[in-house]
TrEMBL record:
Name under which the protein is recorded: Glycosyltransferase
Family: Belongs to the UDP-glycosyltransferase family.
One Pfam short name: UDPGT
GO molecular function, a single term: UDP-glucosyltransferase activity
Lineage: superkingdom: Eukaryota
Organism: Urochloa decumbens
Enzyme class: transferase
Gene3D superfamilies hit by this protein: Glycogen Phosphorylase B
InterPro entries assigned: UDP-glycosyltransf_plant, UDP_glucos_trans, UDP_glycos_trans_CS
Enzyme Commission number, as recorded: 2.4.1.-
Keywords assigned by UniProt, alphabetized: Glycosyltransferase, Transferase
Length: 473
């Protein structure tokens, strides 16, 4: 009887893009949740090249740590496309994922499509929606960013018709997406400003409308206007159906308390007053020039506030995927570390961000506006200073500042340099002013709503269980 149950176990396949940890982490967390409800889950890594050893190593380690019901499968390596610029990371990722579709088809056939309840795609893998349709497997998209961003993707064909993306360089016009605050044209992602990027995101909108559902890493009570706009069909171009929306977030990387608790910064935070420290961290790829780093340092010193700052090596000839640790003495202003000792702590390259943002001593977060980081701040009840740097982060800045009112923008993020006076002024405002205290209170309200959404009867847990029941039946 046990073997019959195992044989009948339904199978969910999650198709992840190559070498994108900001997407891979929430995709794997989704897989863990689904597996915990009795489904067999395979995370398929596609579009891998010979250079993606770090992704494979991370996946193998994750599979070892969480073996029950969750497995990983690597599709064969593919060559980098010659017809796409090596500097166009977004177009490269779309093309690499598309190049693995035939191998994905072979894997799904070999894995018995009759047991496959669902194929869940990251948006970079959107072209695989046709593979799911060919094999008769219900196909879903998992959007690893906000509901507001999902609304924008669905609405993109309408925006494209107005030629609005071309106005981005003028810096005066706005895009109005249903359910969202107006988005300045200069805050649209870089890839939306060229013809190749336009074609990729136009195709993506169509692929999403072909799917059986849209799964989003956010919670409805955080972004109700955007969610309502999607559900009511306001974001979908005329003639296209709107797939069901499933908001199941926040999905965050699992805590690794035993290892992360050894980090020096947590011991340092333990002896700081409550809500007194501003934390600065800018994502895996967030790296400043030498001069910008020094401007931040001078600003922090002038602010007079306690700070915890993750500093990475400036861009250069070193490996962008794994740059060496910075030489702090050479990089920071002379005497900075000595003058700020006790009041500030500079950490090289990495810190356990989720644990830091959950610490009672942290009262503010200067962030690049990556969605995973924003969710970790929301779960920690920490207000943000928004300093977007690349990809969709400028749009996230708009959502966080204008829509959710959980952040204030650092002026000059879209210019060549943010000066030390701006850093000092904004950090002081966040940590000392009445406006900063109001922002902190809104962040704590958002934290309570997030925890309610993830509770047993909460909106996100209920939405996930509805999906699981669909896939089981």
């Amino acid at each position: 009887m046990a073997s019959h149950d195992e044989k009948a176990k339904k199978h969910v396949v999650i198709y992840a893009p190559p070498a994108m940890f900001s997407h891979l982490v929430p995709l794997v967390e989704l897989g863990k949740l689904v597996a915990a409800h009795g489904l067999e889950v395979t995370v398929v890594l596609g579009g891998l090249t010979e250079d993606d050893a770090a992704t494979v190593s991370w996946a193998e380690g994750t599979a070892t740590a969480h073996p029950a019901g969750l497995s990983f499968h690597r599709l064969p390596h593919v060559p980098r496309p010659r017809d796409v610029s090596a500097h166009d990371y977004v177009a490269q990722t779309f093309a690499l994922a598309r190049a693995s579709n035939s191998s994905l088809r072979d894997f799904l056939r070999a894995a018995s499509p009759s047991r496959a309840s669902a194929l869940v795609l990251d948006f970079y893998c959107g072209s695989a929606v046709d593979v799911g349709a060919e094999l008769g497997i219900p196909t879903y998209f998992f959007y690893t960013s906000s509901i507001s961003g999902q609304a924008g993707l669905l609405y993109y064909p309408v925006v494209h018709e107005t030629k609005t993306p071309r106005l981005r360089d003028h810096g005066v016009d706005h895009v109005q997406v249903p359910g969202n605050p107006p988005i300045p044209a200069y805050d649209l992602p870089e890839e939306n400003a060229d013809s190749q990027g336009n074609s990729l995101f136009l195709a993506l909108g169509e692929q999403m409308c072909k799917s059986h559902g849209l799964i989003v890493n956010s919670f409805r009570s955080l972004e109700p206007r955007a969610a309502d706009a999607i559900v009511n069909g306001l974001c979908t171009p005329p003639g296209r159906r709107t797939p069901p929306l499933h908001c199941i977030g926040p999905l965050l990387k699992s805590e690794e308390a035993s290892a992360n608790r050894l980090h020096e910064c947590l011991d340092w935070l333990d002896v700081q007053p409550e809500a007194s420290v501003v934390f600065l961290c800018f994502g895996t790829l967030g790296r400043f020039s030498v001069e910008q780093t020094r401007q931040v340092a001078r600003g922090l010193e002038r602010s007079g506030q306690r700070f915890l700052w993750v500093v990475r090596r400036p861009p250069g000839e070193d490996d962008m995927q794994k740059p060496a640790d910075p030489d702090l003495d050479a990089l920071l202003p002379y005497g900075f570390l000595a003058r700020t000792k006790g009041k500030g702590l500079v950490v090289k390259s990495w810190a356990p961000q989720r644990e830091v943002l959950a610490h009672a001593a942290v009262g503010g977060f200067v962030t690049h506006c990556g969605w995973n980081s924003a969710l970790e701040a929301i779960m920690g009840g920490v207000p943000m200073l928004a300093w977007p740097m690349y990809a969709e982060q400028r749009m996230n800045k708009v959502f966080l500042v204008e829509g959710l009112q959980l952040a204030v923008a650092v002026e000059g993020y879209n210019k060549e340099m943010v000066g030390d006076e701006e850093v000092a002024t904004k950090v002081r405002w966040l940590m000392e002013s009445d406006g900063g205290r109001e922002l902190r209170e809104r962040a704590r309200v958002a934290m309570r709503r997030a925890k309610e959404a993830l509770s047993d009867d909460g909106e996100s847990r209920t939405s996930l269980l509805e999906l699981v029941e669909q896939w089981k039946s």
